[in-house]
Design a protein that fits this description.
Blueprint lengths: L3 E2 L4 E2 L3 E5 L12 H11 L3 E5 L4 E4 L2 E11 L7 E3 L3 E4 L5 E4 L7 H15 L3 E3 L2 H6 L16 E4 L2 H11 L2 E5 L9 E3 L6 H9 L6 E5 L8 E3 L2 E2 L2 E2 L2 E6 L14 E6 L2 H10 L3
Parallel strand pairs: 3-4, 3-9, 9-10
Antiparallel strand pairs: 1-2, 4-6, 5-6, 6-7, 6-8, 11-14, 12-13, 12-14, 15-18, 16-17, 18-19
Length: about 270
């Protein structure tokens, strides 16, 4: 486990597992998992690389096919993997769960494997139960005072009525990421029915509808809270020309901005939860 010798100020080295999608496919300039690994390595911790499809349980013991990993802050050569070996997850001190959505059955099953390792004393970040319980998009609906009008539903009639009321609406899946499958339907949009049919899979899957906010042109802000306190600057993801999505994966540009009074108010509303 991570420990500090308070007499000497020396931090012991940690064997850190990182569950992430294939490292060779990441976007070097924006991947936060790589940044975490580079910093962990700088602090002397050993990085053990695990892909989501390599986790398994054998006779009640959680394992993974893994590689010891060396990472570098080099956009053309950012990692070196050692030979693959199978390890018990209990051999690790901590595991970062950094698998990207979609939040599908495969993702959920992996949280159960990690939860088994947690019972054996491994620190898992984030907590597997929390990952299952806290849907990234539905979580925000706890704070309607901070949000534009928002609806989560599978009913075509309800989703269309929402559009009729607000006229300019964003529709998105509840389990996606990176701006994929996000649609904007303006007033009298001829594609409204097919957008709803496609995203809801013919009414069998809940999706999210949000009133479109023109201020997106100034950036979709990402604010970090640490122990409930906001970091002074946020990352504003500004959409490319002709785009309504600020996601960096969809061509948006990241700009550091100082928090506004409105940003701080939102943080105060959200941080207790």
């Amino acid at each position: 486990m991570v420990q500090r010798n308070f007499n000497s100020g020396v931090r012991l080295k940690m064997k850190l597992g990182v569950v992430m999608d294939p490292i060779e496919t990441i976007n070097f300039k924006k991947d936060s998992t790589l940044a975490m690994m580079i910093e962990a390595q700088r602090k002397g911790h050993e990085i053990i690389y695990i892909t989501p499809d390599s986790l398994f349980i054998d006779s009640g013991i959680p394992y993974a096919s893994s590689n010891k990993l060396e990472v570098r802050n080099n956009p053309s050569d950012w990692f070196t993997k050692e030979e693959e070996i199978i390890i018990k997850l209990s051999e690790l001190d901590s595991i970062l769960m950094r698998q990207d959505p979609p939040f599908n059955s495969g993702y959920i099953y992996n949280t159960y494997v990690l939860e088994m390792a947690e019972r054996q004393g491994v620190n898992i970040f984030n907590n597997p139960r929390s990952l299952r319980d806290c849907n990234e998009k539905l979580f925000a609906t706890q704070f309607p005072q901070c949000c534009p009008p928002v609806l989560a539903a599978s009913s075509e009639s309800k989703l269309k009525a929402f559009h009729e009321e607000h006229e300019d609406v964003i529709y998105k899946p509840l389990d996606g990421m990176g701006g994929t499958s996000i649609f904007r339907a303006k007033k009298d949009d001829a594609n409204l029915s097919v957008i709803i049919e496609t995203l809801t899979n013919g009414g069998s899957r809940q999706i999210m509808a949000q009133k479109y906010i023109p201020e997106i042109k100034d950036g979709d802000k990402r604010i970090l809270l640490i122990d409930g306190n906001p970091v002074e600057y946020c990352l504003a993801r500004v959409p490319a020309i002709g785009e309504s999505r600020g996601n960096l994966a969809a061509g948006g540009s990241g700009i550091a901005q100082k928090l506004t009074d409105r940003d701080r108010w939102i943080c105060e509303e959200v941080s207790p939860a």
